Amino acid sequence: xxxxxxxxxxxxxxxxxxxxxxxxxxxxxxxxxxxxxxxxxxxxxxxxxxxxxxxxxxxxx
Length: 61
Hints:
By secondary structure, the chain is mainly alpha-helical. The protein has a domain at 17-55. It contains two helices and no strands. The chain has helices at residues 3-15, 18-57. The longest helix is centred in the middle third of the chain and has 40 residues, at 18-57. The protein is rod-shaped.
């Protein structure tokens, strides 16, 4: 492989838009996962506290 071939491949790689598109999708997916985990964590705590409150108000026996 000569220097001209390497330079040509480098230019083609830099012109290609497939890489940035895949990267953008990966970043968006990561952000969606982070937001979903945060929402699930917050909602889970709230639901747990609600069930604890309901359980404490139910009569025993």
